[in-house]
Amino acid sequence: MADFASEGESVGALAEALDGEFVSTLRKCALEHGTAIVAGMFERSCDERRPYNTLLAVGADGELLGAYRKIHLYDAFGYKESEQLTPGDVAPVVVKIGDTKFGLMTCYDLRFPELSRALVDAGADVLVVPAAWVRGPLKEHHWTTLLTARAIENTVYVASAAQNGRKYSGLSQVIDPQGVAVAAVGEADGFAVAEISGERLAEVRKRNPSLANRRFTVTPR
């Protein structure tokens, strides 16, 4: 939809409701091309200067399948995202596309394994992670390491779409439940195509039943 504002400024003027022009355009695109779309937007909140960072899932029929308001705001590495955005409620959002369930999370959420586990507990087969992962010392290493860890520890696919350019790291990729990057894009513009296999998911979980063997459960609060 749009990039973030400069420090001290607001993205509030860019925000729209879920029945606004941006979502309507996404729905038309999905219907026209016969494909599901996951995309981010700034959604109006009760604070006109601090909207939600919302992730939308639209089905191939143009219907809005779900909306996830980013929970964890990026108040780290010298940045203060909470000055521009309002956090969403602590609740996992999972949508079904065909026979596959997709758990929605955004950028900085990747650093919090409890959200990934809550999404898997809610039935997610794939974690979808759009991100504007800011460049910096070791940041690219953190990105790839955390994506791989979320896939391995939850025995799920992780599909990440990351902005690139001078400010952001790029490195979009799809990782399978064993932590193997089955498709990837480097720092340049591009796209990656990967097949999500239910058989692969079942086979990995049979060989590595870490979800079945765990002793703790996650209860969102």
UniProtKB/TrEMBL annotation:
Signal peptide: none annotated. Residues 1-198 form the CN hydrolase domain. The keyword Hydrolase applies. It holds the Pfam family CN_hydrolase. PROSITE patterns: CN_HYDROLASE, UPF0012. It comes from the Bacteria. Belongs to the carbon-nitrogen hydrolase superfamily. NIT1/NIT2 family. PANTHER family: DEAMINATED GLUTATHIONE AMIDASE, NITRILASE-RELATED. This is Putative amidohydrolase.
